[in-house]
């Protein structure tokens, strides 16, 4: 059993629940770099989802750097460690660079971040 729960009555789409569930398991250290994950069809059957739903989650996870596909070998948790933290760090660095180019101070930058977090 893959241990990701999908709530079919939730307002969050199933593919997003699956995507977030896999990311949570990576962050918790339950799925480590190099771990093979079930095929799209196998996981779809296990979770009671359409294969296209699982495929979409896998595509988005691959785009985020969480998964890597190795052809016929299947899909695996990416070997770069915790890609969610890597991505967040890159985003933060890019944001700081943009703030510096605009000549804004740290307090103003933090105010924008707080506002975005509260509205998002």
Could you walk me through the main structural features you see in this protein, from its secondary elements to its overall organization?
- Helix content is 57%, strand content 7%.
- It has 2 domains: 14-77, Winged helix-like DNA-binding domain superfamily/Winged helix DNA-binding domain (Arc Repressor Mutant, subunit A, Orthogonal Bundle), CATH 1.10.10.10; 83-119, no CATH class.
- The protein has helices spanning 14-27, 40-47, 51-63, 83-102, 106-119, and strands spanning 36-37, 67-69, 75-77.
- The longest helix is centred in the last third of the chain and has 20 residues, at 83-102.
- The radius of gyration is 17 Å and the shape is elongated.
- By secondary structure, the chain is mainly alpha-helical.
């Amino acid at each position: 059993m893959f241990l990701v729960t999908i709530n079919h009555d939730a307002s969050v789409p199933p593919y997003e629940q699956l995507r977030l569930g896999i990311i949570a398991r990576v962050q918790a250290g339950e799925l480590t770099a190099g771990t093979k994950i079930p095929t799209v069809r196998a996981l779809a059957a296990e979770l009671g989802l359409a294969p296209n739903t699982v495929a979409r989650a896998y595509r988005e996870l691959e785009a985020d750097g969480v998964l890597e596909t190795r052809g016929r070998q299947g899909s695996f948790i990416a070997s770069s460690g915790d890609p969610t933290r890597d991505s967040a760090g890159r985003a933060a660095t890019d944001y700081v660079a943009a703030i510096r180019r605009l000549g804004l101070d740290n307090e103003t930058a933090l105010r924008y971040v707080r506002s975005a977090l509260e509205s998002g």
